Amino acid sequence: MQLRNLTIPYAQPAVFAPMAGFTDAACRHLMADHGAAWTVSEMASAKAITFGDDKSVRLLRDKAPHGIYAVQLFGAEPETMAQAIRIIQEKGVQFDILDINMGCPAPKITSSGAGSKLMQDPELCGRMVAAARGALGPDKPLTVKMRIGWDAEQLTGVAVARQCEANGADLIAVHGRTREQMYIPPIDVDAITEIRKAVGIPVLANGDITTAEDAKQILEQTGCAGVMIGRGALGNPWIFESLARAWAAGVFDALRTEAQGTEANRQGAAGARAAAQDTDLSRQGGSRNAAGAQPAGAAVKVQQPGAAADPALYNCAPSKEEKIAMMLRHFDDVYARKGEYTAVREMRKHVGWYLKGVPGAAAFRGRINQINDAAALRAAIRSI
User: Which secondary-structure segment (H or E) carries 107?
Assistant: First the structure.
């Protein structure tokens, strides 16, 4: 995939979604190292940045990003958005993609007119994008994260998407719910499909993707260019490795050809498989086959495009020991960046995601939430 001057090394990318309170540098790096096409910062307030708030700038700053890195801003005023973009550029914040949040449903965001509140005013969405494009310049990709509408009576997704495209957005990611629905399942795949058909820029499908099979199903249903995964990746960076291995195994080739239908994209599929084999199968935590752990760097059997794929070729179900090792790596990275007090408290919520589906997880979460020092937290994680 090509976004202006940026080459994405996947024909159908799987992107790690922005999530406030979760997608800090430590979390993003884990996802990138396991195959996320790009990762996105926690959202930062454009208005706060224009008021000189250093904390908001620090949310975006990553001095050594792993892989392709996007920063996300939220706001409700076009000129404020443009000013914030100019400020972060002047302050030397490194990023490859600028994303505008038009999807956050949190009341504290929507009450200011930002986030998914923008879905009520497609024209304003267009002006937000135009202002951002003017400040960003012609070369760097500009993307938008949005929902399908505000509520059942205001399904404005198509109008918003068209405004975003017309004013300079290069890609949109669509969460398949209205703001009113928050995160109540299921997502509306028909609404995502309608938005995808209404624009010529790539559209990523977002919502309720927790496995490679989920990703394949939503791509089949919507014809989208890729997926964005949020909560389904928390505590599970292996989902991106599973998808990279699925692409390498040819699982998505027939789907990609049907949806995009050009020789260039067929060549891109082959390139994506080669890239996946070269770079994504030696990730920390290892790759797996049906029999269990597989040595890092082991080759993946590549199938003919369109052939039925054995999920054992690409599913990366980590062992308990692998989860423990990943939790310790994650904690040590947060500790190094933020110190003991913050790291312990932030890691307690991440542990709950890592332990999803593990017997006795509820009792362990109750115990770990009482821990306040790093040594005790490490010991508790090792004892799982």
Answer: helix 107-110
Contacts of 221 (CB under 8 A, 6+ apart): 189, 193
Least Cα distance to 245 among 298, 169, 292, 166 occurs for 298
**Which of 213, 240, 271 is the last residue in one of the domains?**
271
Residues 154 and 21 in one domain: yes
3-class secondary-structure state, position 341: helix
Two tokens, residue 83: 């000013």
| Burial (CB count within 10 angstroms: exposed 0-12, middle 13-18, buried 19+), residue 17 | buried
Comparing CA positions, the residue from 226, 272, 214, 279 lying closest to residue 247 is 272
For residue 45, count other CB atoms closer than 10 A to its CB: 21
Q: Are strands 287-289 and 2-3 parallel, antiparallel or unpaired?
A: unpaired
What confidence tens digit (pLDDT) does each residue in 271-316 have? 443 344 343 333 333 333 322 333 233 333 333 434 455 665 566 7
The number of helices, as runs of H, and strands, as runs of E, in the chain is 15, 12
Question: Within this chain, do residues 344 and 247 fall inside the same structural domain, yes or no?
Answer: no
Same domain, 155 and 29: yes
**Which residue type does 307 have?**
A
Tell me, yes or no, whether 115 and 250 share the same domain. Answer: yes
Alpha carbon 146 to its chain's center: 13
Residue 40's SS3 state is strand
Residues 172/133, Cβ–Cβ less than 8 Å: no
Q: Provide the CATH number for the domain around residue 369.
A: 1.10.1200.80
Q: What is the total count of domains within the chain?
A: 2
3-class SS of residue 124: helix
Q: In a 10 Å sphere around its CB, with 0-12 CB exposed, 13-18 middle and 19+ buried, how is residue 29 labelled?
A: buried
161 and 199 in contact (C-beta within 8 Å)?
yes
Compute CA distances 361 → 60, 148, 163, 234, 366, whole Å. Answer: 33, 35, 46, 15, 9
In this predicted model, what pLDDT tens digit does every residue of 98-118 receive, in sequence order?
999 999 999 999 999 999 999
Report, as residue numbers or ranges, the catalytic residues. Answer: 104
Residue 344 DSSP SS3 = helix
Q: Which residues of 159-171 are buried (b: 16+ CB within 10 A; e: fewer)?
A: bbbbbbbebbbbb
State if pTM tops 0.85: no
